[in-house]
Design goal:
By secondary structure, the chain is an alpha+beta fold. It has a single domain, classed as L-fuculose-1-phosphate Aldolase, CATH 3.40.225.10. Helices cover about 40% and strands about 15% of the residues. It contains 7 helices and 7 strands, in the order αβββαββααββααα. It has a 7-stranded mixed β-sheet with strand order 3-2-1-4-7-6-5, with helices on both faces. A hairpin with a 6-residue loop joins strand 1 and strand 2. Helix 2 crosses helix 4. The longest helix is centred in the C-terminal third of the chain and has 26 residues. The radius of gyration is 18 Å and the shape is globular. The two termini are about 30 Å apart.
Length: about 250
């Protein structure tokens, strides 16, 4: 660590680090991420720090790959390990949202079309109730013109966080999406079910288009979504426990 590097926030329980590494593998197994994408967790003792794997495919992450960052997304303990270029997504959301304890960035394929057309993503079923609060679209062109579409510095991260506001999910035009939550487990649940919900919405739109009367979708309204999300904060742990057990069986941690 050089003199210019921020100091570490201190030791973290090995189980928490293992859960974060497992979250990367869970997201890969569920088809949310592939060779790209990342998940982070706010430091459990020091809120101005967060934890994320080094730049590596999510399905390969181990506890030894986890790096600590300050909220400027500067590594505290990289030790020669490389960082994700888009880590600023995480740092700026943590800065803007004291309630957020975990962030997932992915390019899940069923989600991307909703950032390209004027069809808003809606909450199609109870597991995706968190989407009923609205899903804004971040278009990087609006502030930065033509770019490589990557959130590769703090200013771009700030712009994304501003568009996301208090919502749980934001789309990124021609890029992917971001999901967040008050716990690591909730953020993973939301990232997975954003992708599932997108598939269901595609099917629903196709079915509705085949009807002569053009009946509207009976998506969840705001209050239904809020009530469903309250239940999912606890019931959703059933999915996490299944996914986490599967990772433990595969790798032993």
């Amino acid at each position: 660590m050089s003199a210019a590097d921020p100091k570490s926030g201190g030791p973290i329980a090995a189980e928490r680090i293992a859960d974060l590494a497992a979250a990367s593998r869970i997201l890969a197994a569920q088809g949310v991420v592939d060779g790209f994408g990342h998940v982070s967790m706010r430091h459990p003792q020091v809120p101005d720090r967060y934890l994320m794997a080094r730049s590596i495919a999510p399905a390969r992450v181990t506890p030894e790959d986890i790096i600590e960052y300050d909220l400027e997304s500067k590594p505290c303990n990289a030790g020669g390990r490389s960082s994700f270029l888009e880590r600023f997504i995480h740092g700026e959301i943590y800065k803007a949202r004291a309630d957020v304890m975990s962030v997932v960035h992915s390019h899940s394929p069923s989600v991307i079309p909703f950032g390209l057309v004027g069809v808003p993503m809606q909450a199609m079923f109870h597991n995706a109730g968190f989407l009923a609060a609205g899903v804004p679209v971040f278009d990087i062109r609006e502030k930065f013109g033509a770019t490589d579409l990557l959130v590769s510095n703090g200013l771009k991260g700030v712009a994304l966080a501003e568009v996301m506001g208090r919502r749980n999910v934001a789309l990124m035009r021609a890029h992917g999406s971001v999901a967040c939550g008050p716990t690591l487990q909730t953020a993973v649940f939301r990232a997975v079910y954003t992708e599932v919900n997108a598939r269901i919405q595609h099917w629903t739109l196709a079915l509705a288009g085949s009807l002569k009367d053009g009946a509207p979708m009976a998506a969840l309204d705001g209050e239904e979504g809020r009530l469903a999300d309250v239940i999912n904060q606890t019931a959703g742990m059933r999915a996490w426990e299944l996914w986490r057990a599967q990772v433990r069986t595969q790798v032993g941690w």
